[in-house]
Amino acid sequence: MDQWQKDLKESIHDVDSLEKVLGVPADPIRDIVKEYPMRITPYLLKQIKDKGDAIALQVIPTVDEAYPETGCEAEDPLHEEKDSPVPGLVHRYPDRVLLFVTNQCPIYCRFCTRKRFVGSPGTLTPENLDKVVAYISAHTEIRDIIFSGGDPLMVVDKLLERILSALRGIPHLEIIRLGTRVPGTLPSRITQAFCDMVKKYHPLYMNLHFNHPDEITPEVTQACGMLADAGIPLGSQTVLMEGINDDPQVMKSLMQKLLAIRVKPYYIYQADLVRGTKHFRTRVEKGLEIISALRGHTSGMAVPHFVIDAPQGGGKVAILPEGTLLHIDDDEVIVKNYEEKIFKYPQPKPTKSDKIENGLPLMTSQDREG
Ligand SMILES: *Cc1c(COP(=O)(O)O)cnc(C)c1O
Fold first, then answer.
1. Is the whole model's pTM more than 0.85, yes or no?
2. From ligand 1's centre to the CA of 112, what distance in Å?
């Protein structure tokens, strides 16, 4: 057994152990964890300084997860099951698919979009892998696959390699992406053997999940460094959450720390409408405020896209703060920068092939004078 498997075995998953180590009363949350399992790795437990801190809030079950149906939430708000042509595969966008490798995760995030099934037994079977390979082989428009779950790094190297090599046999499949929270929660999983194995399957990208600057520790820095040294471009995904990271300064610090460990911030997600997670949800304006506080104020490399994954399978929609493009017409464009200063960019004359749409409303002279 590898060290990471031993670490995983020592994780906390019952409420009585949680009460013993962190003083969280067990009885109120006993039924919650029957519905939605808990797991806290020994590494993550060490990072919890207080049972109300930003790391603790992501993994400690609370009674807030149980409440009467609200009507606007669902078990599967993104309709992933409706968009699934073969078991384990979601095909929503024209040229890329999502593959569920396993239902297991290193920790069970209380805000998880897939709260409905994570933690239950289940890993991609050889029969289903064959079906996935057959489906992708028959759909030559698919050029990108994202391994998800659960967390695809929860399976042993041998199985992950079997899946990678089966897919690499498909000529039109250009890139493989692994979506994982492992480097930030079970860094011992990132071994040299793992890096040596995955780098045989380039071009391969990884998108890591981080929500708070306190998650960037020396162990995480080392794990990300090993992955980057294996030539894997690293991106990050962050979920915007009330009381955890709904603060421009906290997000700025997170994005800067990610860049410093060679992880390029990719997405900030508006929290999904998942049953049992409403206490984490912020208003959308908060995300826009965060993007405004990043753009121009720090490295452009540190600014992710802010997206809403539209309910009912509408897919990701990137949304931007209003009012940076103030006006556009045949002659000029007027823009506002991060300091709210206004600039004019003269346009080249339209050619016959340019179809000028009637753009944005004209500015008033008062706006122009700022
Ligand atoms: C997020 C997602 C993708 C990947 O989207 P990108 O914007 O390309 O990162 C693909 N399929 C599904 C179902 C997704 O939810």
1. yes
2. 16
